[in-house]
Amino acid sequence: MNIAPPPGGIPVVLVTGFLGSGKTTLLARLLRRPELARSAVIINEFGAVGLDHDLIERADDDVVELAGGCVCCSQRGELGQTLARLRERREAGSVAAFERVLIETTGLADPAPILRDFLADAWLADTYRFDGVITTVDAVHGLGTLEREPEARAQAAFADRLLLTKADVAPSAAIDALRERLAALNPGVVPLAVAAGEVAPEALFGAAVRDPRATREQVERWLGARGFVGWRIAASEPNRHGPDIRAQVLVREAPLPAAVFRGFFDLLLEARRDDLLRVKGLVNIAGAPGPLLVHGVQGSFEPLLPLAGWPGGDRRTRLVFITRGISGAWIEGLLRSFE
Ligand SMILES: Nc1nc2c(ncn2[C@@H]2O[C@H](COP(=O)(O)OP(=O)(O)OP(=O)(O)O)[C@@H](O)[C@H]2O)c(=O)[nH]1
Fold it and tell me: What region holds the CobW C-terminal domain (predicted)?
């Protein structure tokens, strides 16, 4: 049996969403699919006794539970150790050679520190790669939850895939209102309505792009900038929502000289690193054969990846920012000051 990790690493997907929003239901349904059988699952529970584990029926023991605290706060570091242990067991043949890892966070987890720790862990980088955040949002109660709970807003803003769960019982007006709210919180992602966790795996996985030869489809899906079409950062902050989290996109038609982008990017990090919840985008650097791919989570950035060529006809610089309290006008002004 070939146990070498696939080229580029084993994809790691974070499944998050507020309490009771349908994470376990989704995972249980997904894991019954034969094409997802070779998945390892890490479940993070509050409290000493985890119940979710029992709800996920698995024949083997590729389900690991992080009980007793939340991986985003009291158990920082624990996730990395668990991934390392799973790798050892995979290499030793004591678990099946899993092809992906699904991590279910607690309903109150802030996905940002989890992702930041993972991306920053060089020791894991030769085996694993980040493959996106899936966030479940309860279509019945989601609107109220998003109003009240900052964690729920962070989970939605962070998502690469948004699932509106319980679509079988939610009134269509509630789903429409929720879609509108989510479009402000995370304009790049079109939410999928699902019932009882029934969703095609192709719609969920393969969100991240770390391949210099990525196709146009892959890049566009990852960037999710289509939701921003025709929209730019404006002084009036049309995308301001909630007390703090904002989503905005910076667009430039003309290529940016490398020194301009570097100056802008370095100063942005120096000034507001901790408030950059998520940044992703393509930068058209003057003279380069392809765009520079930028991906950062809470101030921790993957190395800037120059793509071999442009994946499609749209060669504009498009940078999507999900921030805590940074005004679009400020970001715009910062870039202008270097142009
Ligand atoms: N009708 C309906 N009920 C659902 C759906 N998805 C989940 N539920 C129910 O909602 C409740 C919570 O679902 P879970 O999957 O346990 O939610 P969770 O996000 O894992 O919950 P926590 O672990 O507490 O954060 C359960 O009673 C599920 O049966 C759905 O699509 N339709």
Answer: 245-339
Q: Establish whether residue 129 lines the binding site of ligand 1, counting it when its CB lies within 6 angstroms of any ligand atom.
A: no
* Single pTM value for the model: 0.77
**Which pLDDT score is estimated for 303?**
73
* 2 located within any domain: no
In this predicted model, what pLDDT tens digit does every residue of 113-124 receive, in sequence order? 787 778 778 788
Instruction: Collect all residues with Cβ–Cβ distance below 8 Å to 5 and sequence separation of at least 6.
Output: 126, 127, 128
> If pLDDT is split at 50, 70 and 90, which confidence band does 26 have?
very high
Q: How far apart are CA 106 and CA 45, in angstroms?
A: 6
Question: pLDDT tens-digit profile of 148-183?
Answer: 888 898 889 888 899 999 999 999 999 999 999 898
Q: What is the residue-averaged pLDDT of the chain? A: 78
Q: How many domains does the chain have?
A: 2
- Residue type, position 227, single letter: G
Listed residues 203, 237, 262: the one ending a domain: 203
Pocket lining: 50 vs ligand 1, CB cutoff 6 Å: no
168 alpha carbon to ligand 1 midpoint, in Å?
12
Q: Which protein residue has the closest C-alpha to ligand 1 atom 12?
A: 20
**Final residue belonging to a domain, choices 173, 203, 233:** 203
Ligand 1 pocket, residue 145 CB under 6 Å: no
For residue 313, tell me if it sits in a domain: yes
pLDDT at 168: 95
Position 257 scores a pLDDT of 97
Is the residue at 5 inside a domain? no
Which residues touch 30 (CB under 8 Å, ≥6 apart)? 36, 39, 102, 197, 199, 201, 204
**Domain membership flag for residue 3:** no
Residue range of the domain that includes 162: 10-203
Tell me how far the alpha carbon of residue 204 lies from the centroid of ligand 1, in angstroms.
Answer: 18
CA distances from 319 to 160, 282, 291 (A): 15, 6, 12
Which atom of ligand 1 approaches the CA of 52 most closely?
23
Q: How far is the CA of 250 from the centre of ligand 1 (A)?
A: 37
| Span from the CA of 20 to the centroid of ligand 1 (angstroms) | 5
